[in-house]
């Protein structure tokens, strides 16, 4: 998990900064420390020093003489962790938690619910110490507060709980965006791009991929601008129309027809890889790939890779809705047009996915093994759109 790697990197930095050489009574909190994005803050002594927390919505700090350390982890709901148990498991694994003892009382952390507190041993980067961990959540995010020291006695425990009680959340204002009620037709359309949606850490069970969030909306806008040159409604319409009407399948057909004109159609199937190596100076991997491309083109024409275009067209409409370039109804109407066309072209989810994967390989110039593995994993998920019959009646249900 990507977030687990971030936790590990941040904790290694923090533990490396700690001398962990015995510490006395805790300092009286006197200075508020903020995450880079300003979404959380906590009170610590004036002489504590900030440490690299690894991500903008976390806090890392070390006490005077490097004796104590604290990490405050925030995971916005709907993003990195599926629930509090997921966060707890990541912390336990990454921080090498041992001798875990759940405490009867977690003190008070204003605004947090579902509080759980633990004493434990922590071991990171070969440096060990005692730890105190508090987990909780708000409507906005899940939290873990990790305090470490060489030894935590009762006096220090009271001090740590005072620090935890000083946690304040300043959640960004949520963007106004209608939550679209999920239907079988919408879930089916989400299934056309569920592989990439999952790879991007988004939810294939939501139209738009995530709850409305100003930070995520800006990230999605930046992605559209950087990868597609889309910055507003007009450029969104222009790019989408080209993708829906031609896409990469247009260039694919032209290239395959050019190969045919060069005589490839007259070459025996088992000799085509050699033909590509000798006439186009391709290496073995590329020659094998192009031999498959041409064979698929002979059998299916543009539909050898058209699912790649249909998938991205439907996903783009989902993004256009999420960032506010389209209203929900018009984005869903446009998606339905492409979905109905895609359904008529293929016989099953596997058939569609084969075309999608070949389109990815044609575009990326590399294999699709990893994406296919994600697809195979999604087949087993209980909420997977791939449990829907490919031939369900797609209809306007919004």
Ends distance: 35 Å
Mind telling me the C-alpha Rg? Answer: 27 Å
Shape: elongated
Bin the strand percentage: 15-25%
Low-confidence stretches: 17-26
Question: How would you portray this structure in words?
Answer:
The chain has about 400 residues and is an alpha+beta fold. The protein has two domains: about 30-170, Mog1/PsbP, alpha/beta/alpha sandwich (Protein Transport Mog1p, Chain A, 3-Layer(aba) Sandwich), CATH 3.40.1000.10; about 185-385, no CATH class. It is about 45% helix and about 15% strand. It has 14 helices and ten strands. The chain has helices at about 1-15, 85-95, 155-165, 185-190, 195-200, 215-230, 235-245, 245-260, 270-280, 285-300, 305-325, 330-345, 350-365, 370-380, and strands at about 30-35, 40-45, 50, 60, 70-75, 100, 115-125, 125-135, 140-150, 170. Strand 8 and strand 9 (about 140-150) form a beta hairpin. The longest helix has 18 residues, at about 305-325. It is elongated, with a radius of gyration of 27 Å.
Ordered list of secondary-structure elements with their pairings:
Layout (H helix, E strand, L loop, with lengths): L1 H16 L13 E4 L5 E5 L4 E2 L8 E4 L5 E9 L7 H11 L3 E5 L10 E12 L2 E11 L3 E9 L4 H12 L2 E2 L14 H8 L2 H6 L14 H15 L4 H13 L1 H15 L10 H9 L3 H17 L5 H18 L4 H18 L3 H16 L4 H11 L19
Antiparallel strand pairs: 1-2, 2-10, 3-4, 4-5, 5-9, 6-7, 7-8, 8-9
